[in-house]
Amino acid sequence: MTDRHAAREEILARIDAATADIAAGVPREIPPQPRTVSTADLDPELMLEFVGALVDYRARVVVRPPEEVAEAVAEVLAEARSVVVPAGLDRSWLSLLEHVEIREDEALSPAELDTVDAVVTAARVGIASTGTIVLDHAPDQGRRAITLVPDHHVCVIRVEQVVADVPDAVSLLDPTRPLTWISGPSATSDIELNRVEGVHGPRTLDVVIVADED
Amino acid sequence: MTTPPLQRTSATFLGMPAFPKAARAALADTQQRRNLAHATATIRAKRAAVVGEVEDWEGLRVAGAAAKDDALHHLAERLEQLEANLTARGATVHWARDAEEANRIVVDLVRDRGAEEVVKVKSMVTQEIELNEALEEAGVSAWETDLAELIVQLGHDRPSHILVPAIHRNRAEIREIFLREMAAVGRPAPADLTDEPARLAEAARLHLREKFLRAKVAISGANFAVADTGTLVVVESEGNGRMCLTLPETLISVVGIEKVVPTFDDLATFLQLLPRSSTGERMNPYTSMWTGVAEGDGPQDVHVVLLDNGRTAALADPDGREALRCIRCSACLNVCPVYERTGGHAYGSVYPGPIGAILNPLLRGTGSDVDASLPYASSLCGACFEACPVRIDIPSLLVRLRSRVVDQSSRRSPEALAMRAAAWTFADHRRFEAAQRAATTGGRLLGGRTVRTVPGLGAWAQARDVPTPPRETFRQWWARTHDDEETT
Ligand code: SF4
């Protein structure tokens, strides 16, 4: 305890001495950041950008009206035998799953999750310019581990959740929640810069974008 | 005012030859040069394309530099704010003056939890303090989980690039390393392993997954630490970071005090600057943010070790402190003509390339030959400044550090002055070839044997197998077999 305290005091004193030449209280000039959050709901071009960026990252993307989400989920999970879902997920999305064991996440251990083929979650926000989906692990997205250990992640996002750029997303997020930003499936370029998907995270990322047809 | 203590140059790097000598050896390694040229050119092209997509890249750079400067100029305040927020959210904050203190804190935490192994996210700061070695000494196995770091660790090697640490290894070498080494430390590589990248990645996935699933303690660094919220951020690609940050019961993050950024909003700036500068991607596959303990989700025992280790000494240098803005994106390495030819090992530090050439002398002083030679490891072409997302003026800093080394060397050994010869050698291919010829003399004496220790190369050579130097250079061979006369 005393040791920890001594180290803290000493480092802070070193910093004070090191920055003594800097006039105290110089106000920071924060350059203005764009903060008008526009969503793909209002801007079809954003939607195209989002889909394009997702596809660039080798995510698989489908766009469906709300009444066809269950169909889309069943299609992308045609090969799966088991799927884990968070407690708060909209159950209607799973209504067409046949021959698939559905396990609600009740604090499954990592080893248990390792036996599950896929996971279905909602999302918090999508970023058009980068093709990124952010999860804030609310009840419809579940704990961080469930979107990590199974090899296949199906993520359902509504078009009105998609924003233009990174600052828009940051301004919508709650920093007290754990946050996971996902851009495509897990990937490495460590072997002679060849891109390989699915090193440790999910090998396949399916994104179901829910948008009204008109 | 007392000057804050410098970082001690570690024994591993103290034994290393100064940059000119190390660079000479690296230059003789054609495989490495080919890998590096390919890698840096590829990343450079990708970076240029995605930077071009951003409407006001210059504005972002200015914002990034301003945020970092604000944090550095009010560092004590920001760190106290960070600590208060972390503590309020259930994390335990530790402070470490130097590498030894940081290692002791981590080792004690691991031991107290009765863990015999830890999983690690790629982190340069833990390499800087040589945490793996400290853990091993305490009987704890530390598993690197980033694919490149795994290759480096299994190969008993050192990283050579910030972003792609195993860039000096090709696929055939990686296959051999996996087949030879994996079995001794866990799940063996499949016997029919080929050198296809997908097969190699799969072998790593299976090997590491059993470690992720049973790990009780994980160790990470952080790309950013947000003062006004207490949020830590790790940026990665493979998902090994998420595994370490999410599955174990205990998470220990070692964070250099320069990693702090003032506000959560600043992440908007850095999450645009970093991936585009680093891998040349619009966004990296995974970014994890966590603020202390999240109830029922992830590690419930969360520790943060705030590390000085020479950073306050760099901060005290009004000329040099801007180097602490560095977000370790590696863009400056990829555009550097010197780095492209010598590779990372020649810099004698975990921080290679142009940023290493200024950061290491700032953190460690210029007392050792390796650090005194680093400011000369540059052609001063200015490409690194152009590429740097936080506008660190590396070329000007190098020039200032050079004059410091020269001032010092007039009082020190005459050979220190000779460090300037490095820049001179690089300037002309004939001088370089003469230097290379001098290096091959060693080859003649050794015959065809692979050498593990080369006199004068010290610890650097022990860290990896040095290819036997060719008995003669191509030019010598050509001269001998074609007109029997050595050209100069
Ligand atoms: S000095 Fe700049 S370009 Fe180099 S690694 Fe640091 S942030 Fe990137």
TrEMBL record, chain A:
<dbReference type="InterPro" id="IPR024185">
    <property type="entry name" value="FTHF_cligase-like_sf"/>
</dbReference>
<protein>
    <submittedName>
        <fullName>L-lactate dehydrogenase complex protein LldG</fullName>
    </submittedName>
</protein>
<dbReference type="InterPro" id="IPR037171">
    <property type="entry name" value="NagB/RpiA_transferase-like"/>
</dbReference>
<dbReference type="Pfam" id="PF02589">
    <property type="entry name" value="LUD_dom"/>
</dbReference>
<feature type="domain" description="LUD">
    <location>
        <begin position="111"/>
        <end position="210"/>
    </location>
</feature>
<dbReference type="InterPro" id="IPR003741">
    <property type="entry name" value="LUD_dom"/>
</dbReference>
UniProtKB/TrEMBL annotation, chain B:
<keyword id="KW-0411">Iron-sulfur</keyword>
<dbReference type="GO" id="GO:0006089">
    <property type="term" value="P:lactate metabolic process"/>
</dbReference>
<dbReference type="InterPro" id="IPR017896">
    <property type="entry name" value="4Fe4S_Fe-S-bd"/>
</dbReference>
<feature type="domain" description="4Fe-4S ferredoxin-type">
    <location>
        <begin position="322"/>
        <end position="392"/>
    </location>
</feature>
<dbReference type="InterPro" id="IPR009051">
    <property type="entry name" value="Helical_ferredxn"/>
</dbReference>
<protein>
    <submittedName>
        <fullName>L-lactate dehydrogenase complex protein LldF</fullName>
    </submittedName>
</protein>
<keyword id="KW-0479">Metal-binding</keyword>
<dbReference type="InterPro" id="IPR004452">
    <property type="entry name" value="LutB/LldF"/>
</dbReference>
<dbReference type="InterPro" id="IPR003741">
    <property type="entry name" value="LUD_dom"/>
</dbReference>
<dbReference type="InterPro" id="IPR017900">
    <property type="entry name" value="4Fe4S_Fe_S_CS"/>
</dbReference>
<dbReference type="InterPro" id="IPR024185">
    <property type="entry name" value="FTHF_cligase-like_sf"/>
</dbReference>
<keyword id="KW-0249">Electron transport</keyword>
<keyword id="KW-0004">4Fe-4S</keyword>
<dbReference type="Pfam" id="PF11870">
    <property type="entry name" value="LutB_C"/>
</dbReference>
<feature type="domain" description="LUD">
    <location>
        <begin position="79"/>
        <end position="307"/>
    </location>
</feature>
<dbReference type="InterPro" id="IPR037171">
    <property type="entry name" value="NagB/RpiA_transferase-like"/>
</dbReference>
<dbReference type="GO" id="GO:0046872">
    <property type="term" value="F:metal ion binding"/>
</dbReference>
<keyword id="KW-0813">Transport</keyword>
<feature type="domain" description="Lactate utilization protein B C-terminal">
    <location>
        <begin position="406"/>
        <end position="480"/>
    </location>
</feature>
<dbReference type="Pfam" id="PF13183">
    <property type="entry name" value="Fer4_8"/>
</dbReference>
<dbReference type="InterPro" id="IPR024569">
    <property type="entry name" value="LutB_C"/>
</dbReference>
<dbReference type="Pfam" id="PF02589">
    <property type="entry name" value="LUD_dom"/>
</dbReference>
